[in-house]
Write a structure and sequence with these properties.
The chain has a five-stranded antiparallel β-sheet with strand order 3-2-1-4-5, with no helix packed on it. It has one domain. Helix content is about 0%, strand content about 55%.
C-alpha cells in the first residue's frame, strides 16, 4: 500500500487479471474485472472503461488503485529495469 498524508485512504496493490468482461450501460463502456492478489485473495471491480488499460486481458499484471478501500482504477505496472 502507498504511504503519505493519505495513508489508509489511498493505496495500491499488485494483482493479476483473472477475467475481463466488457459491457455497456446507455452507450457508456464499462468493464467487470476479476483480480487475483499476491496473497491469494481475489476481488471483483466494476469500472468505467477509462479507468482500465486499453486491451486488458486475463493474465496481465496490474496495479490496483484504491480510494477508501474501493477499487477506482487499474494501471499497467512500470517496466522493470
Amino acid at each position: 500500500m502507498s504511504t503519505g498524508y493519505a495513508h489508509g485512504v489511498l493505496g495500491e496493490r499488485s494483482a493479476v487479471v483473472a477475467n475481463v468482461q466488457p459491457y455497456e450501460v446507455h452507450g457508456s463502456r464499462h468493464v467487470t474485472v476479476a483480480l487475483a492478489f499476491e496473497d491469494g485473495t481475489f476481488a471483483q471491480a466494476q469500472l468505467g472503461a477509462e479507468s482500465v488499460p486499453e486491451g486488458l486481458q486475463p493474465g496481465d499484471p496490474v496495479l490496483v488503485k484504491y480510494a477508501m478501500s474501493v477499487v477506482v482504477a487499474l494501471e499497467r505496472p512500470p517496466p522493470s529495469d
